[in-house]
Hints:
Layout: H1 3-19, E1 37-41, E2 47-51, E3 57-59, H2 62-70, E4 77-81, H3 88-93, E5 101-105, E6 108-109, H4 111-116, E7 121-123, H5 127-134, E8 140-141, H6 148-161, H7 165-186, E9 196-199, E10 207-209, H8 214-221, E11 225-226, E12 237-239, H9 242-248, E13 252-255, H10 263-268, H11 276-279, E14 283-285, H12 300-311, H13 321-333, H14 339-347
Parallel strand pairs: 3-4, 3-7, 4-5, 7-8, 9-11, 9-13, 13-14
Antiparallel strand pairs: 1-2, 5-6, 10-12
Helix pairs in contact: 6-7, 7-12, 13-14
Amino acid sequence: MKKLEKALIAVVIIAAVVGGSALIYTRDSSNNPTSGTNTIVDMEGRNIEVQKNVDSAVSIYPMATDIVYSLQAQDELTGIDSVSPNNEMLQKIDPAISDKTKVGMPWDVNVETVLSLDPDVVLGGWGDVRQKIEDTGTPTLGFALNSFDNVMYANSMVGKCLNKKEKAESLNDYIEEEIEMIEEKTSQISQSEKVRVQFIGRDTRLSAAVQGGFQDRMLEMAGAVNVAGDMTGDSWWTKVSIEQILNWNPEVIIVPAYCKDSAENIMNDPQWQNVKAVKEEQVYTMPRFTVSWDTPVPEAVLGLMWEAKLLYPDKFADLDMAQEVEEFSSTFYDLDLSDEEIDRILNNPRSI
Length: 352
């Protein structure tokens, strides 16, 4: 796995932990036409004053950057985290992304570079970094992403901040509609019929997504049983032994695209040959577009749809994932994908 991808998923977990319990998304109907600023409640519950008509924004948080691109607000980005400019698909969406000033990552931000850009707002940041930026009078917005409600709230927050409110509402309407479609069907699955799934972690095949993490919540929404759903950990995953996995005997195994291990390694490992998912060749790699689809950003709704169709193909026979990817890309990224690119996203995500 690329080091940058490991850093990206690590910062998702850090932000979710630091941010605590984030706010729940509701449609924003606020309007203050007489004020020169917008009052934005960030994901840590802070009231932040951000000027209207933002001309310059800096994103030091990769997930915030992804949301900005989902809202087609990238023209306002003058500074950007260190991961996103190296992302192949973001380069296709925005060929000028490499021209944006790299400012570092949330735990290693060049504050002087951020301030030299004279931003109207900074997306992300915490601790000393945030304090140094806010001491200059520059507002920062905090993020905490660990559920689809969090993702939709962040869409709305960034949309209000960057004058993309209508695009944020359209994106959230799409996410809500797809979730409703999936849960309407998966709610009819009895407990005994639910597929038992192990979701591998980011570092090793001897790991599993635990209770309360984003991957655990996705599996539940897709109608699955997370075999490690009763376990807890310091992050979204925990290390496990091969004996534990053999005892669980998962029917399906999902490997995230950013994992340094692979579905092929699991299939070829002699110790795993008695696991039902391996015996029946039900080991899969989670697709990725700009990110692996188990990352809490707007694209994750595609991951939820993919999981539901993978686990219950008969119930989701009319769900065409290639078409969904094509429509998501053209609608929210303003990018027309070729058939070859869609195939890579769905079937060869580790090549991206």
